[in-house]
Amino acid sequence: MSLTPAVTPVxxxxxxxxxxxxxxxxxxxxxxxxxxxxxxxAEIETTLSAERTAAPTLTLxxxxxxxxxxxxxxxxxxxxxxxxxxxxxxxxxxxxxLNVAINAQPQSHADGMALLAGGEAxxxxxxxxxxxxxxxxxRARLFQLADRDAEIAVLFEATLASxxxxxxxxxxxxxxxxxxxxxxxxxxxxxxxxxGVWDNGSRDGVGGTGHTIVxxxxxxxxxxxxxPARPEHWSILSSTESLAGWQTHAGQDRERLHAVVGNALQxxxxxxxxxxQDEAWHPRGMRASTLYRRIEALFGGEQHPLRSLVQDxxxxxxxxxxxxxPLVEAAAAxxxxxxxxxxxxxxxxxxxxxxADGISARLSDSYRSGMVANFILSALAVIVGVAWLPLGVDxxxxxxxxxxxGLLAAILxxxxxxxxxxxxxxxxxxxxxxxxxxHAPILLLIGVARPPSHWxxxxxxxxxxxxxxxxxxxxxxxxxxxxxxxLRFALQRLLAPHVASQRAYHQAKAKRLETISHRLxxxxxxxxxxxxxxxxxxxLLRAGAALQWLPYAWPHASSKVFAYLGVALPTLGxxxxxxxxxxxxxxxxxISEVTAGKLAQVEVRIGQLLxxxxxxxxxxxxxxxxxxxxxxxxxxxxxxxxxFSGKPIALPA
Length: 653
Hints:
Layout: E1 9-10, E2 13-18, H1 31-54, E3 59-60, E4 64-66, H2 73-83, E5 87-92, H3 96-103, H4 109-116, H5 124-139, E6 141-145, H6 149-161, H7 166-189, E7 193-197, H8 209-218, E8 223-227, E9 230-237, H9 254-265, H10 291-299, H11 325-332, H12 339-385, H13 388-391, H14 397-420, H15 423-438, H16 440-445, H17 463-473, E10 480-482, H18 484-546, H19 553-583, H20 585-611, H21 619-644
Parallel strand pairs: 1-3, 2-4, 2-7, 4-5, 5-6, 6-10, 7-8
Antiparallel strand pairs: 8-9
């Protein structure tokens, strides 16, 4: 049975890396490599067709090929992909003109400068390579890392002008290799599978084929490796250790390829298939589900704890003009941004977040208020059940027993309904989706993605991670040229405000939860102390009567009242302690405090970068900060999940 959540559009993403033309391992015109790549791509298409047949609800989008468009294997793969109607996306290490000039590999200063200016090279081989890159650049969606173009162009020109200058050559190759490695990193992060044509040679060349393959394996991306000497034999590897002698046992690992493709398209965790579309949207919370929030309001230090706590959830179709309006405004003003891409993010990702956030908040209210109600009802059942003692209505005990029975029955009904409606699991699932999507627009707008292998391991169900990953996969990379002006604006208007707001939120949350935990603990302790005091008073009365210091009737007449207090007060105190334990306010406060501290560090780093000159701001640094924010978010989700995963709605025993 297919376990893919229905109506979730999915897409396979493949990356390609390999030797350039001129490499001695690419003999002839590369037709043998092209044929092997075409065979692998056809096998992928066959697997996709099988997945589509097995899962009729699967909405499959055309496969996306990520390539740096270098002359050689990259372009052979682009040609094979184009034949199959795949989408071609190119994260270029430089702006388009500089990318053509460098990767055409000119040998003369005149040819290099001509290509850089958009002209023609006199060397036929150089011009042929330039034509190939230009041809595929016209047919691909380009994400151009042009933020360092000015300095690298100077190094490029100086190297061609003085080919004998080893120092200049080293500086140029180091800078160019660093950019190629960065583009390769983006490609790997965006791909479910990396295909590499490699002779198992050097891994040390930064930005080279071996370097990219090792980096993919290090982050957990499976790599399909072809030996250029025997491209019809290939293997799929999953660790850097498996590179040892891989060519000696290379074959056609088709079953493993089918598994890699299937795992990218299906949420194969044995759980019930669900999506956000399965959850009904409600614009407003329920009054009966505000009990948990009432506890927070009463003990969290709010000025008006008795106000109405029924929530109005922001409609998905209004978020772009509502709470997310500053983000939308900043995104629209990004210098050189892909306007169609910005619209896709603001019109699709933001509403999806609003929907997940509203659904999750409503489920959270129902689940947590149900558990709080169970604790309170359990205390009331005991308190009401023995209330006949101080009231002295021995003949009406059955009425109190009936009331106790009703309260206990209510606990059973709440627990049964909570389990039947999967409140705990559904809250967990939808909250994970909401938190993944909350930060997604900022990451997407600057071309940052969480690698498929780095998504958290699910507890119970995997569809939230699956659905969020494919929702974020859909836009892909924006078609744009990354400049330093773009990066500074993104830091100022996207990353900095977001980090500051999230840091302030977690700081306030930590303080509020610490206050709630302290006050609940103090109330529970006070109730126990009062109970101890009540019992002590009665014992003193009894001792005083025995010693004839007090009238004998006093302890006898008050025994039922003190017995009632000795039962009711500890029971109520235990109920308060149960709510405190269930809410785990202290541990959640610690999680938020740690998260706020990490975000504060990122905030300082952003400020330091913005305080420096434009030359200090590059894509590598900005993307590193964005990844840091993403890691903090996912870490907070995993910590939160670890605390609450073992607390489904249950009897307060």
